[in-house]
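Researcher: We're reviewing a set of sequences before deciding which ones to prioritize for further study. For each one, I'd like a predicted 3D structure that I can look through quickly. This is Metallophosphoesterase. If possible, include the structure in token form so it fits the rest of the review sheet.
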Amino acid sequence: MRIAVSVDDHLDVNKLDWQALVPRQAAYLRAHEAAAYLNAGDTFNDFNKSVTYFHALQNAVGSELPVRFLAGNHDLVKGITYAQAQSAADPLYLHERTLRLPGSDTVIIGNNGWYDYSLAPTDLAKTPAEFAQWKRAYWLDGAIDQPLSDAKRMARVLKTTEAALQQAGSQKVIYITHFVPRRDFMVYAPNRHYWQMATALMGSSALGKLLEQYRVADVVFGHLHIRQPDQTFGHTTYHHQPVGYGLRRLNEWVGNDFFTEWVQTLVWLEV
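Model: Here's the predicted structure for Metallophosphoesterase, in token form for your review sheet.
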């Protein structure tokens, strides 16, 4: 069996007619015999719209092919509180949950993830307070409901992830998250202060260390919007194939058709 994973589809930013897209995606997933379809976040800039879309896709593919999704930072901007984001907000929402597929010894653990500023350049010499202030002033995430610090939010990610890994025991684990789990995937631009500050909000190196400690087989993530070759560290292989933006002012696609980009960036994993 194989599962398919996508990330950073940004259906609203890419100005797509998602209702016309759903039947094409459903037909493709069924034709290629996907055992499940997972999305690692950033689908709409509104959690409720993401929910509506994924339920439409689930209905289109049928109940035998489970669809699950995470919330990236874009999904969390509107339509959901922090408390709701940490709850079972929807049956298809995979955050802090585990999906088991019948007939497989693989478990799929989902967690939105977050960040703790550990991926910022070591020579930037900024305090956590300075990163937090910059985020509130300049970054999209400043609009996300969050009654605690980024460090504490990331600490919850690590705690719930480790609990899920312990529960998985000796089973093969595929981990799906939105944010970057390892410094090796980062790109820095010393002459661009805005981007250098933003790197603090990309993810956490502590997550990668934890996943490798538990010998997680595969990790799929996004957020960085740079398609990169798979990389393996120890027993863990990382997959980073975001769809990204196909805009005139910011084009991250190879071509100019969303469906083709979605197909080409799907991560297929054996379960």
